[in-house]
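Hey, I'm writing a tutorial for new members on how sequence and structure tokens pair up, and I'd like a real worked example in the thread rather than a made-up one. If someone can provide the structure for the chain below, I'll link this post from the tutorial.
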Amino acid sequence: MAEKPKKKVVRVETDASNPPKKPTWKPTPEAKGKATKFRLLAALLWLLAIGGEAFAIFWVLKQDPINMVILIGSIVVIGILAISGSILWKKANRADPAPKSDAARFFFQNQLGAIITIIAFLPLIIWIFRSKDMDSKQKGIAGGIGIAVALVAMFFGADFNPPSVEQYDDETAVVVAITGEDLVYWTKSGRVYHLCEEASDVQRESQDGIIYSGTVGDAHADGKERLTLKVDQEIAQCGFEPLDDDADAEDDEPAVEPSDEA
């Protein structure tokens, strides 16, 4: 039998001088302070929601007969507290997001509102359906309302498009590449931010008639989701030099979107 030719094995090593890029974006002290305040308020509201759950389980459901008005009222109040806390928590995450590179932190920080909602409702709903002091009709009404309110609160608690440090890094790099500085513009009523105050979308009448300016981080902290998708249009309107093909290739934004609001 002919001897098989010996194959050459070549070891491939990663260039240690060019390690993977780490996120560099950091919130300003003002944004960090705002995020901390929002998180503390959110935590307080969530604690009140869980306290309301304990009140409903250990007092309302212990009464004989059970007062359905107080029980349903407690469920609604718990839902309002949970939703309010989640809204504040999301605002904090936009001012001070988590890095995607830390998968566990990224998940829990962005989905904490939904997790807290489960904690604030699931034991109460189970207790309602297992109660021996309520008939089937009462259980159906209270349990159904509890499930409905919990689902609404979970919807507000979950973040389906969470921000990340990497996203802010990429957006800042694009803005600086086009304008030469980390400075963008937006209106209070719009969902996105823009490259200059002369952009047509910015010039639309806003609710308060004011055009705001600041860094990419400032825009996100004020509730803006991302950079406008009309980048090419605004480059022309603002008088900036077009990006080269390599810069365009690095842009992860989707190519088509129906419309962009100011």
